[in-house]
Amino acid sequence: MKEVLYVAKDVQLKFWEQYFMGVWAQLINQTVFVLTNGPLLMFNTNNNGKPKPSFWMVYFSAIVKF
To answer: Under 8 Å CB-to-CB from 35, ≥6 apart: which residues?
Structure first.
């Protein structure tokens, strides 16, 4: 059974987005990180935290290789 261990929200900013959009760049590329005892899940969200259709899943074995 998978168990959620930690949830955090972050903003991924690229230099050109921050440079050209300024403060408005923080309204896009918001990501929610969900740490489970299985894979690490990352969801794109809007300003209100509602998930968008795209998400990533990273297994811990891939992180060890990195």
So the answer is: 4, 5, 6, 7
